[in-house]
């Protein structure tokens, strides 16, 4: 079944998308009028390829690369796309409101190293085989042997029964997490991490207009802005 006609598209003999009234798009990605993405351009074995979608396109390239792909396609802040010589297709706040958890870790040297478990010295292929075959052994344990979650602010003065029973009041949710790890990345040490679980400071992901290709490690400009808010 050809669903392209139901969506207002057709395919001519050259396999290029066009409107049903015969007026072609400026290119094969619906950048004229409808602003509808119908395919993906990519490179394989150093050759340009095009994959057309029968229903929809799902972009799932992670927190940092997904906004870059959108901006490279002309979707995002116009100032950033135009600076990279990309035609602005849709002005949207792509790359804003980046949230990440800040972590402060403390590593302690033990007087008795036997109470820690060193990844590099203690993990063996036998442990891996035991885990894959029987689902047992040291690889089944969590890296963090003890955890605590705390609320750093004062509790609200008025709490309803539903707040305590259903945990529906967001002000009661913990905003700090303390995790103790016996897994040592240096011999004879243990680690204690303190993490913020409800960050309020927002950062951004921007497009580096000087990046040459998608493989350029400097392609995204990431600003975490961990402590941008006094909260």
UniProtKB/TrEMBL annotation:
| InterPro entries the UniProt entry points to | GMC_OxRdtase (IPR012132), GMC_OxRdtase_N (IPR000172)
- Per the UniProt record, one Pfam family is GMC_oxred_N
MF terms (GO), sorted A to Z: flavin adenine dinucleotide binding; oxidoreductase activity, acting on CH-OH group of donors
Q: Which UniProt keywords are present, listed alphabetically?
A: FAD, Flavoprotein
Cofactor(s), names only, from the UniProt record: FAD
Q: Which residues form the Glucose-methanol-choline oxidoreductase N-terminal domain?
A: 62-76
Instruction: Please indicate which superkingdom the organism of origin belongs to.
Output: Eukaryota
Record bears the keyword Nucleotide-binding: no
Q: What is this protein called?
A: Glucose-methanol-choline oxidoreductase N-terminal domain-containing protein
**What organism is this sequence from?**
Allacma fusca
């Amino acid at each position: 079944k050809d669903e392209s006609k139901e969506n207002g598209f057709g395919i001519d003999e050259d396999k290029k998308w066009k409107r049903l009234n015969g007026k072609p798009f400026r290119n094969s990605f619906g950048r004229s009028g409808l602003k509808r993405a119908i395919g993906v351009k990519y490179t394989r074995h150093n050759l340009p390829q095009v994959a057309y979608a029968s229903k929809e396109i799902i972009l799932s390239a992670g927190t940092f690369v997904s906004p870059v792909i959108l901006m490279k396609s002309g979707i995002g802040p116009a100032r950033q796309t135009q600076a990279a010589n990309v035609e602005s297709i849709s002005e949207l706040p792509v790359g804003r409101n980046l949230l990440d958890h800040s972590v402060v870790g403390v590593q302690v040297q033990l007087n008795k190293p036997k109470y820690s478990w060193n990844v590099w010295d203690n993990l063996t292929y036998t442990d891996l085989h035991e885990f894959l075959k029987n689902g047992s052994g040291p690889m089944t344990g969590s890296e963090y042997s003890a955890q605590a979650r705390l609320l750093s602010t004062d509790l609200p003065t008025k709490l309803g029964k539903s707040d305590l029973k259903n945990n529906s009041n967001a002000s009661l949710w913990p905003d700090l997490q303390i995790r103790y790890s016996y897994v040592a990345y240096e011999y004879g040490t243990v680690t204690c991490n303190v993490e913020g679980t409800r960050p309020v400071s927002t950062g951004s992901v921007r497009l580096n207009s000087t990046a040459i290709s998608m493989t350029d490690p400097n392609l995204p400009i990431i600003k975490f802005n961990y402590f941008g808010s006094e909260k």
